[in-house]
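--- STAGE predict ---
source: upstream dedup step, 1 unique chain passed
mode: sequence only
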Amino acid sequence: MNNDLEVAVQKLLAYCQTNDWAGYEPYDVLNSKIVNSLPFLDFKLPRLILTQALKRSPINVRSLLLVPKTQNPKALGLFLSGLVKLSTTNTPNHEDLIDLMIERLVALRSQGTRYWCWGYNFPWQTRTELVPRWVPNLVCTAFAADALLDAYEQRNDARCLSMAVSAAAFILNELYWAEGERVGFGYPLPSMRNQVHNANLLAAALFCRVYKHTGDERFIAPALRVARYSAAAQRPDGGWAYGEASTQQWIDNFHTGFDLSALRTIARYAETTEFDACLQRGFDFYRGHFFRADGSVRYFHNQTYPIDTHCVAQSIITLVDLKHLDPANLPLAHSVFRWAMDHMWDHRGFFYYRILRTCTIRTSYMRWTQAWMFLALCRLLSASKPATTRVQLEHSLVQAETQR
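--- STAGE serialize ---
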């Protein structure tokens, strides 16, 4: 199975390199030169309709709409995290690829702010607001900063730590808010005081990592306060709604996975057992609701379709992150991988977007599918190697670095 994993990782890596790490996005219709040339479409309702229509279409017409393929900072962060995990393999030009990802993150930082922070490479229309292209947001910034911390922890690169600390300061100083017992972060815009639990926990996890590496006390209290707030919002059955608004009451796979992985990170870096019971209940809910007997995974907790590659990737990542909770996690993660290879893999070296009840959407999305699957497969490959082999390889890397 590890040989199959290594082959898939290398083919996927080659595909992403060949495409210069650039691609389409499910929500990128507003990057269309044709759409932007038609003023009567520049209103909320047409923007929402166009976005959903293109996202759901089984036929990719982006080239006809003159939507360009672009690089996405969040995708670059995911690639960077995956490449760091590949340090125990014989990937050609591995160190050069890590350097490239870091430099691309430097180049694509959001402008007009003193912080290191990142936004999406497309404007997107929410139900209430238009979020402009490149405006920094919590999720994009958190994943980029986490990747920089991954690089720092492997390489001891002070620049990576400095950028990650600045990103955490952006989230703390510009997005964090508290009103009585309620706390959270402005997302997707600083002015929007939504209660989105995965955003809360992702930020709290980043704060704890920064605190662990710097000892900077300003991060730990907000991290634990926000984590406690969102942990308290866990439902009795162990699940979390996406957010607290009446329009945010769904429970899906990858956002629940974000919650669980973030809680694990908080426990590790804050050195606390406070959230252990919450994490166990959440994991039991996750295992019980999102996995099917054949190895496929659900998008929503109460319905099978769509089967989405982003959910496949996060399911593998969550199982790896929480492997200490159940020895069956890694075998299950391998089953998910095998199912994805049998049903969502294209021989050209990429993964399809979604399987619906009636058809498969074979569009390739660089961030939504390829970057996430790359990270997931790298994490699974690393976790599946015998511990003695990992230690020996890591020792060899340290010796090679010393001899430079």
